[in-house]
């Protein structure tokens, strides 16, 4: 070299994309549509988030109410007399179904607290919850309201210490004024004295045709022998077939 200095190659910058056209400016309104799409997506996401939060809130309220109701029921059960008796779990018994109304006349009576000292008609309990349907009770008698065939029965518990005991189911009818008709009879004779405290039961029953206003009753010859320990020991009734 003439000047004594080292020669360096020249550096040229070459643009390799000179063969591509320059980018075009956005079309009119395109940027506005893009903004609208972004807002729509944001609003949709916001609505979904709000619905999710609302569902979580409702679920929390439901769980709170459920626990509160359980606590209230448990506290009431703990305060009940059954729960206070012990630590045993309290089970609620289902209510029994209602008793259907009879379709035909019937009556079933238990003995009351009164009885004849000697002979006479037995009286029966009509207070409380007796079973009487389409029959009338009056002074120890059952009065028929509808004629037809009836099954009539009576059971008496009595002391067997006496010499004899007689139980009769009788009927008074307007067809036989001034007299009574004997329907059923039980008689017991003790030829020899029995042990003190001996008890026996008598039962009679049968089917009879009854007219309207016929009166049926139970007659005993020794009322002092009738035992009135339990209402179920003595009963009297009839029902239409």
From TrEMBL:
<feature type="transmembrane region" description="Helical">
    <location>
        <begin position="40"/>
        <end position="64"/>
    </location>
</feature>
<dbReference type="GO" id="GO:0005125">
    <property type="term" value="F:cytokine activity"/>
</dbReference>
<dbReference type="GO" id="GO:0005615">
    <property type="term" value="C:extracellular space"/>
</dbReference>
<keyword id="KW-0812">Transmembrane</keyword>
<dbReference type="GO" id="GO:0016020">
    <property type="term" value="C:membrane"/>
</dbReference>
<dbReference type="GO" id="GO:0005164">
    <property type="term" value="F:tumor necrosis factor receptor binding"/>
</dbReference>
<keyword id="KW-0472">Membrane</keyword>
<protein>
    <recommendedName>
        <fullName>THD domain-containing protein</fullName>
    </recommendedName>
</protein>
<feature type="region of interest" description="Disordered">
    <location>
        <begin position="72"/>
        <end position="114"/>
    </location>
</feature>
<dbReference type="InterPro" id="IPR006052">
    <property type="entry name" value="TNF_dom"/>
</dbReference>
<keyword id="KW-1133">Transmembrane helix</keyword>
<dbReference type="GO" id="GO:0006955">
    <property type="term" value="P:immune response"/>
</dbReference>
<dbReference type="Pfam" id="PF00229">
    <property type="entry name" value="TNF"/>
</dbReference>
<comment type="similarity">
    <text>Belongs to the tumor necrosis factor family.</text>
</comment>
<keyword id="KW-0202">Cytokine</keyword>
<dbReference type="InterPro" id="IPR008983">
    <property type="entry name" value="Tumour_necrosis_fac-like_dom"/>
</dbReference>
<feature type="compositionally biased region" description="Basic and acidic residues">
    <location>
        <begin position="72"/>
        <end position="85"/>
    </location>
</feature>
<feature type="domain" description="THD">
    <location>
        <begin position="105"/>
        <end position="241"/>
    </location>
</feature>
């Amino acid at each position: 070299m003439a000047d004594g200095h080292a020669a360096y190659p020249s550096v040229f910058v070459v643009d390799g994309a000179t063969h591509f056209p320059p980018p075009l400016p956005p079309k009119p309104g395109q940027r506005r549509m893009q903004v609208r799409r972004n807002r729509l997506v944001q609003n949709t996401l916001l609505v979904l988030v709000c619905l999710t939060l609302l569902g979580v809130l409702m679920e929390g309220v439901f769980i709170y109410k459920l626990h509160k109701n359980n606590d209230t029921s448990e506290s009431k059960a703990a305060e009940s007399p059954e729960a206070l008796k012990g630590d045993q779990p309290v089970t609620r018994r289902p209510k029994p179904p209602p008793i259907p109304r009879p379709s035909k006349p019937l009556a079933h009576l238990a003995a009351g607290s009164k009885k004849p000292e000697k002979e006479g008609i037995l009286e029966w309990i009509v207070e409380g919850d007796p079973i009487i349907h389409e029959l009338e009770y009056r002074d120890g008698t059952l009065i028929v309201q509808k004629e037809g065939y009836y099954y009539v029965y009576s059971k008496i518990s009595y002391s067997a210490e006496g010499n004899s005991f007689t139980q009769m189911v009788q009927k008074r009818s307007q067809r036989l004024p001034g007299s009574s008709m004997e329907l059923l009879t039980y008689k017991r004779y003790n030829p020899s004295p029995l042990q003190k405290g001996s008890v026996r039961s008598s039962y009679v029953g049968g089917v009879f045709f009854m007219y309207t206003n016929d009166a049926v009753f139970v007659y005993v010859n020794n009322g002092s022998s009738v035992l009135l320990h339990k209402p179920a020991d003595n009963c009297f009734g009839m029902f239409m077939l």
